[in-house]
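hiii, so i know i said id send this last week but things got crazy w the move. better late than never?? heres the sequnce for the chain we talked about at the cafe, plus the structure i predicted for it. fair warning i was half asleep when i ran it
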Amino acid sequence: MVVTLPAVERDWARAARESSTLFDIARAVDGPFHVVHPPTFADNLDRITSALAAENIDGMVYFGKKANKAAAWLTQCARPATGVDVASVPELVAALGGGIRGTDIGVTGAAKSDALLWLAMRHDCLIAIDEYSELVRLADLAVRTKLTPRVLLRIRPPAAPASRFGFGPDELGDVVAKCADLRIDLCGFSFHLDGYDPVPRAELAAELVDRCLRARSLGHRADRISIGGGIACAYVDETDWATFEEGRTDAWFHAGRNPQRTYPYYQAPTGADMVTAIARHESAGISLAERLRDAGVALLIEPGRALVDGAGFSVFPVLGCKQSPTAGDIPEHLITTVAGLSMSVSEQWKGSEFLPDPILVTPSDPRGRDDGPVYTAVGGSSCMEYDVLTWRLVQLPTTPRYGDLLVYPNTAGYQMDKNESEFHQLPLPPKVIWADTSWRFDEGSRP
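okay and structure toks below
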């Protein structure tokens, strides 16, 4: 028996997919599309900024633009204690065009181009530097332009000694000392950790507070640290996830393609609660929040998908359905083909799988829809064998038909559009902003 894994949905998303307006959008677009909901983004953002304020922490919450390309999020970030994280010239230009001040933009990424460094300096962005040659290039640009860039030095976490990102602990002291001879405003330090555990983030952040104090003794400002992303989300119910993981087998997946690694679709704490857990974690009997307050150090966070949690879903019109060949222990099932590509649910293109159940939405006329529940995998409309949106056999209430819609819930964080391309000359799925029962195209996303 294949186990279902229903997604946790926000009220707005449930109302949207139950509305006939979804079919109106499908007719207007004539292909797949993404639905986004800025008020949910704003609510997520308010909860995280409020979590910092509740601990009396001076901080900044950056939306990592790579998590989702919708322009609608940017206007929500034009508020106090909020900014945008970018890693390319087009992302920086988009953030500026969205009303974000340069002082509220963080620039990250490895080995940034001179064009990106120059533009970031011109707008007084906060630049995370990954290695020494990049720092030297930035200092040279600073001399030529007579600008003083604001910089964070990214450290390589001790738990990830083979990481290609950041300065190792042994070299960081020398680099900090050299910054005193360069035209650099050293504002502090940053790191990124894999996983979603609040404890290692809090403990490494506490170490960086001490590094800030040492850097001040050399004359640097050093008044902020960035703990990067990894703020967790829960896509499904705890019990459903436990049941799924306990029984998971290759036979639940078309062609036995059971991915070795997937996102932990249930976890706790999440969102603002995880931020609170980080702030309250104690090292040597002192909470991180207390260390930050005593040292006058601000905490910067890039919550990534946690800001768009529940703020979007993806819709794929059904093109056809057929019986799949089966082998071994894999149950009899269908292959449903949808308009669009698996690049629009991009976990699949990393050898992984977006596991929450897609939801079949049918026209209101129920005639002839009495064949009962079916199992199906879901394929994209390209000629590639591996263009599969859902390898897992999911249960739908009836056999999908041409004109039905298949909704993938809560895709706005990384799944929705991270790897999309115009393969087969198919247009990118547009983004649609949902407002009660009305809708409009996201800026720059009209088909």
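btw The chain is about 30% helix and 20% strand. thought thatd interest u
miss u guys!!
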